[in-house]
Specification:
This protein has about 220 residues and is mostly helical. It has ten helices and no strands.
């Protein structure tokens, strides 16, 4: 008798594993194409499943799938700024920006479509998800600065800088990712210090933060 080759057993995915598989497939597509250019058939093909199966997990269709994928990406972006408290605040910010720009680099088209808006799948819920990332980033940064109860000028400066980081990221993509990510990161850190320094001339709280940053340095 000819020995039979063992056939690998088929492993049935759990509900959570299947959902994760579909979200990963959707994220990989949204990373390189605008949301309106991605269909459920595309997601099904990328995941190696049928279109009805995608609907089984996302009965709301493409809109529900996009919002879930966006939420997953938002969680990853929030983690970019969730930096361990080692090193100076500016060293922590540098590490956070390194992860942030790596995310932008990997999800270039999808990132641009997300922040520029105007997508046919954009809703108040997707806008809230994106704004949640901005607020979370601001809270992380304020926490690293030791600002437990920040005043309006310091809060506004941090949020304005986050907006500038987003704008710079989009321009960076338009400019074929030039200058190199490391140079862009360091320039954004310089912009952070410069913005705080301007506010410090009008706000004692921010002046104290700038003084602490100067003492701690960048290591």
């Amino acid at each position: 008798m000819t020995p039979q080759t063992a056939t690998p057993a088929y492993r049935r995915l759990s509900v959570e594993e299947r959902r994760r598989q579909l979200l990963d497939a959707a994220l990989s597509l949204f990373a390189h194409r605008a949301p309106e250019d991605v269909s459920l058939d595309d997601v099904a093909e990328a995941a190696g499943v049928s279109r009805p199966l995608v609907y089984r997990y996302f009965p709301g269709g493409k809109q529900q799938l996009y919002e879930a994928a966006l939420g997953s990406a938002a969680d990853e972006l929030r983690q970019c700024f969730d930096e361990p408290r080692t090193g100076s605040p500016l060293a922590r910010l540098t590490r956070a920006l390194t992860r942030y720009l790596a995310f932008v680099d990997e999800h270039d088209t999808g990132f641009a479509a997300l922040l520029r808006g105007g997508s046919v799948v954009e809703t108040s819920r997707t806008t809230a998800i994106v704004d949640g990332v901005r607020r979370a980033a601001a809270e992380h940064i304020l926490s690293h600065l030791g600002a437990t109860d920040p005043g309006p000028r310091l809060r506004m400066t941090i949020r304005m800088w986050i907006t500038a980081v987003e704008a710079a990221s989009l321009i960076w993509l338009d400019e074929d990712k030039q200058p190199p990510a490391g140079e862009l990161r360091d320039w954004l850190v310089d912009q952070f210090v410069a913005a705080l320094s301007v506010t410090a001339t009008r706000d004692e709280e921010t002046a104290a933060v700038v003084g602490a940053l100067a003492r701690d340095g960048r290591d």
